[in-house]
Every structure is written in structure tokens, then in C-alpha cells.
Amino acid sequence: MSASIKVEKKRKERLDKFLASLLLKDGIKITRQEALNLMIDYALENEEELRKRLKDLPPLEDDPAWKSLESPPHWGIKESSKKIDESLYG
Q: I need a labelling partner for 32 at 20 to 30 A (CA). Which of 22, 52, 74, 90 fits?
């Protein structure tokens, strides 16, 4: 089973450069999917280091999107998807 994930453009570009350097320097050619699978395996095998890096990330509660989900703005519409659709789409 496979799943789609979104990768930031900057990280995708870095991954592509890494894969290109693997080919040029070492003659190793692998797909993005193979590289990501290996990277995930490596991260899970080095769980303590991964935990240290995750602890350095800002808390989810500080994320503006998370804050918005926790206390969504009041639009003056009662909980009716039909009314919400009418307000949004006319």
C-alpha cells in the first residue's frame, strides 16, 4: 500500500540534488521513493536522535493554523452547512 505525502519544494530540491550527487559521485541511481523509504528506515533506526530533533521543533500549539482550528472565527452563521455554503459560494 502506498500513500501520497506533500514535501516542501525546498526539501524536494535538496533531495533531488542529493540523488544527483549519489549518481555522479558514487554511480548509485535510486528513485525518490527508494531514497525516502531508506531515509524513513534510517530515522526510525536512530530514534533517539530523531526525538532530539523533534523536541527542537516549535510546539504545535504555536502554529497559527492550529490556533485557528482550536478557536475558529465566528462568521455569524449557525451550524448549518447549507447556510455556510450559501455564504461562501452564493
A: 52
